Amino acid sequence: MRPMSTFAKLPLVLGLAFAVLTPACKKGPSPEELAIRKQLEDDKTKLAEQKKALEKDVAAANATTEEFQATVDEVQQALASVREKELKIIKASLTGAKEGGMAKNRKTEILEDIKDIQKALKDSRTKLANVSKQRNEAQAKVKVLQTLIDQLEKTLEEKETTIAMLQQNIEELNTKVATLETNVKEKEDTIAQQVKDANRAYFLIDAKKALKQKGVVEKRGDVAGVGGRWILTGKIDETLLTEMDIREKMEFEIGAKSTDVIVLSDHTKDSYEIVATGAKTSTLKIKDASKFWQGSRRLIVITN
Predict the structure, then answer these.
(1) Which pLDDT value is given to residue 140?
(2) Rounded distance, CA 301 to CA 284, Å?
């Protein structure tokens, strides 16, 4: 059997793995990364199965060795029996020589013993030849199998190293992606805040008397309470203002008729209009938001 061709695939697998893992713009393993990892895991499983099968072959070879030992023991027992029969024949021959002859039945018995010895020797020689051949073949097979097992062990180690390396790269990529996502989130939050700030404005609508008491407005140029005009003092409690988004709010409901409404903040006259909506109600409608909010981001409206 030849060594597994999987060795030749390892550089290619590593090359593909690093090519896939280079971009650090995705969260978690990509489909390509998962496919490579699955291929490596499958290779590892197959190699483990092949190793198990080879180990079974080695076990079978060991069983052959045990069979050889059993045959040797059997042959040794046969030789011991032969030795006993040899001694028996020699003893009978000596006895017959001393007595000047040997009974016929005794001769027949000795001849049968000799045949048994010859058969036992022939059977033992055949068994030894067969088992010796099997043992030689088994030893050669065990040597080849052991070489393959060593190669498979090395391949498994390489696969495990590759998988561990891929896992480490993926974890590093996940860390980079998490950092990138954090940076992107921070930038998005900053941009969102900048957009919000760029479109933030405030408004305050209330009666003259109330706003005067709060120090927001005052009347100047009047004579004995007659004439004059209302102006902003420049002093205002920020908590009195209502925050708004200029992209969303284009109308302001006012609880006074349109003739009693005065816009004190700086806004282009043609960018808005005040429309009567009832006997004692009106609405300030912004016609051009860009022009309206150029002068001031605070809309201050007073009513009589």
Answers:
(1) 75
(2) 10
**Fold for the domain defined by 6-196:** Helix Hairpins (1.10.287)
Query: Residue 191, CB half-sphere, CA atoms under 13 Å: how many?
Result: 6
**Dist CA 29 CA 35 (whole Å):** 10
Distance CA 264, CA 29 (A): 61
Q: Is the pLDDT of residue 20 over 50?
A: no
CA 101 distance to own-chain centroid: 98
pLDDT (tens digit, 9 = 90+) per residue, 198-255? 999 999 999 999 999 999 999 888 766 677 899 999 999 999 999 999 999 999 999 9
8's tokens: 């030749």
Where in the chain are the domains?
6-196, 200-303
pLDDT of residue 63: 63
Q: What is the mean pLDDT of the chain?
A: 78
- pLDDT tens-digit map of 289-300: 999 999 999 999
CB 4 within 8 A of CB 152: yes
CB 178 within 8 A of CB 94: no
Handedness of CA 52, 53, 54, 55 (dihedral sign): positive
Q: What distance in Å separates the CA atoms of residue 152 and residue 51, rounded to the nearest whole number? A: 7
Q: How many helices (H) and strands (E) would you count in the chain? A: 5, 9
Residues 302 and 262: their CA atoms lie apart, in Å, by: 5
pLDDT reading at 59 higher than 90: no
- Are 297 and 200 spatial neighbours (Cβ–Cβ below 8 Å)? yes
From the list 267, 261, 277, the residue with the least C-alpha distance to 208 is 261
